[in-house]
Amino acid sequence: MSKSNPHWGSSLDDVLDEDGIRQTARHEAATRVVAWQLTQEMERQGMSKATLAELMHTSRAQVDRILKAKGNVTIETLQNAAASVGRELRLELV
Questions:
Q1: Do residues 67 and 39 make contact, with C-beta atoms less than 8 angstroms apart?
Q2: What mean pLDDT do residues 61-88 have?
Q3: Going by C-beta distance under 8 Å and a sequence separation of 6 or more, which residues neighbour residue 59?
Q4: Residue 68: how many other CB atoms lie within 10 Å
């Protein structure tokens, strides 16, 4: 029985490596997780996007980009957003 799908039995990491997008996918996934955590904390506190924008000294449009994990959001921006909701962003090398 021949394989009709060359990725059959491959891990996701293998497929992403083969396509050359593993690092990009990991970066996007990490950014989305942080954005989701920020959204959850805002909801817990009853905080609006406008309030977060004021606390961060930025525009509501920028807060939308952060929470949608769109574009190139810097670590500094994520740290600022986390601090604005009373949390801390932690990064580590593994």
A1: yes
A2: 93
A3: 53
A4: 13
